[in-house]
Design a protein that fits this description.
The chain is mainly alpha-helical. It is built from eleven helices and no strands. Helix 6 (about 115-135) crosses helix 7 and helix 6 packs across helix 10 (about 180-200). The radius of gyration is 18 Å and the shape is globular. The N and C termini lie far apart (about 45 Å). InterPro entries: Fatty_acid_hydroxylase, Sterol_desaturase/TMEM195.
């Protein structure tokens, strides 16, 4: 099976809503894994726009721009962390498909909104436990600590990911492969990743107030 489909075009509205995980089931349900767009790749112009906007707002709000050297380090780490996905399908999806093909107990309908929302909850639940364990288990922290090595907290920090992190996170999604089709999982694992991006900023005073409580 091949990579995500890079040919499906998104409208501007869909692209913006994609970044905030507010696309609807009828827009993002696909029968096969080959039909699923590469949402992370399509998010590149939105990453760039939001990074530029944050740079300007930080300068206006705090009176100083973001530090270029720290940001470049984060961006470089993000590029390196994506290299395996350029050549091969990510381990999260590959192992998920293997478990689905060999161990699934039942098959929920791929085009049901209930399946879509259940997957939304399941992926978020899996990510919660991965992230918690990544802070509590030594060998998992070794693959996650790069994300917390930035000296500044901004949108580039969201891209500062370890090359090794995916090799400790994929097991938390295996239970879903017992009944949720890979095409549905492939959508949500990407949206969950994209959602992490915009919350890594200090230029939103309302968000900062909530996070600091």
């Amino acid at each position: 099976m091949g990579h995500y489909n890079g040919e499906n075009e998104l409208s501007l509205s869909q692209g913006v809503r994609m970044m905030f995980y507010v696309l609807q089931p009828n827009e993002t349900s696909f029968k096969t894994i080959e039909e699923v767009p590469d949402y992370v790749e399509k998010a590149t112009p939105y990453f760039t726009t939001m990074l530029a906007l944050e740079f300007v707002l930080s300068w206006l709000w705090k009176g100083k721009p973001l530090r270029i050297n720290d940001g470049l380090t984060s961006l470089s780490a993000g590029v390196v962390s994506r290299l395996p996905d350029v050549l091969f399908r990510g381990i999260e999806l590959s192992t998920y498909i293997y478990f689905w093909n060999n161990y699934r107990l039942c098959e929920l309908p791929w085009d049901s909104p209930w399946t879509w929302w259940l997957t939304f909850i399941g992926v978020d639940f899996g990510y919660y436990w991965f992230h918690r364990m990544a802070h509590e288990v030594n060998f998992m922290w070794a693959g996650h600590q790069a994300h917390h090595s930035a000296e500044d907290y901004n949108l580039t920090t969201a891209l500062r990911q370890s090359f090794l992190q995916k090799y400790t996170s994929f097991v938390f999604y295996w239970p879903m492969a017992l009944f949720i089709p890979p095409s549905v999982f492939a959508v949500h694992i990407q949206f969950n990743l994209l959602y992490q991006f915009w919350i890594h900023t200090e230029v939103n005073p309302v968000l900062c107030h909530i996070l600091r409580k």
